[in-house]
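Kindly review both lines to help learners:
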Amino acid sequence: MCIQTHSLYLQYDNVSKSLGTYDYLLDENGTKVPMQLCKTYFNEANLQPSKKKYTFDSRVDTKCVPLVPLKNGTMNNYSVKDILESQNVSFSFERLVKLELKFPLMTIHLRTKDAVLDEPDCFQFDVTILYDNSGHNGEVPITIKFEPTTLECHGHLLRDDDNKSALGGLMAFDVFIIVISALSMTLCIRSLFRAQQLKAEVVDFFLKRRGKKLSVYDRLEFLDMWYVLIVINDIVTIAGSACKLELENKDSNNYENAGILLGTGSLFVWFGVLRYLGFFEKYNILILTMKRASPNIIRFLTCAMFFYFGFTLCGWVVLGPYHIKFRSVSTASECLFSLVNGDDMFVTFSVIGENANPVIWYYSRIFLYTFISLFIYVVLSLFIAVIMDTYETIKYHYEHGFPKGELMDFVEQCTDEVTSSLYQTEDHRGCDTNIFCCCCQRKNPDDIPNEYTSLIR
């Protein structure tokens, strides 16, 4: 580790030779900010394996020292070991928890779009290289992390008028998207609200005139989930476009949120295309299959998750110390999910070789064979059977007619066309008793409703 630290220090001292455009962070005196070496260690750890004795203090402390090269005559001494010894810093792996190398770098990012240079961005990267010895098992994993910070750039970019027009056009397009999405969201919310108003009137009508309550299925007929999806999509698109405008104006550097919002909005847009495919019979069968099968799929997955979580926790507890794919709960879950899809089976088996503890070796085989057999041959087959059963049911209904709820039976009793004036005007004309109430206006001028009360006002 000392050799690698020495090499990293030399690379940091010669950062100008890197392939990218990087430079050092300078202090107030114009001096390069040195690399920091931070160690986190236990306050006391005296281990004597031969005597089976130990003295241990679990409290930890952190100490950081700058790595400033030593002057040896006219030459600089870049030996990390000598630099640390000059500052009375020593290492004991018995006490060491982690070691961190921290240093800042400055850079200017040149962005090009369609061979056109965009406004450059200035960044400061706070780099941290972590040597993790928390396991104290002889393995020291090394990770590197970058924390970017956007800085204000001072410069002048020469560009022609066409580039300026293109940038203005992009910002105008973002504003146009926000306006259109806001209008779409407003109209959909209005439609959802009016549908709920109509539902309240229908529920009250059935309760007072027929003495019945509408079922949950009939009430859901008034909730258009496509409109709900459009509202969510519009909200995400507006937020993402606003973040994109801030990025283009250099008011923010939160690229992650902008990417997540715009990507999710694009996903929902393509989901919404399925709505229009539903107007075609062949495509509508697939959409109805997913819609009708979703309750059974949720119930089935709920039961299957108990099996899955049980195997995940068992693999993490038993195989975690011996298998790299089961070191944590998340990696154990990812490994098992890959096995369900037939990925990396041989590698998963071979990590625990025959030289391992026989009990663990046999247990790992029983565990993996049981999981793979149960989920691939049983759970997945049942999952497909649930969907296929719904598909066959939908096909049967297409040939022999769909079952109708009480609400649809009531609506189909109406023989008037949708364009009938009875739905658009309201007067006190009489109505033939042979015509159903959904097509009639008030038979009596009184405000007391009766069985012929108009449902649509």
In short: The longest strand covers residues 53-67. The first helix runs from residue 2 to 13. The chain has eleven helices and ten strands. The radius of gyration is 35 Å.
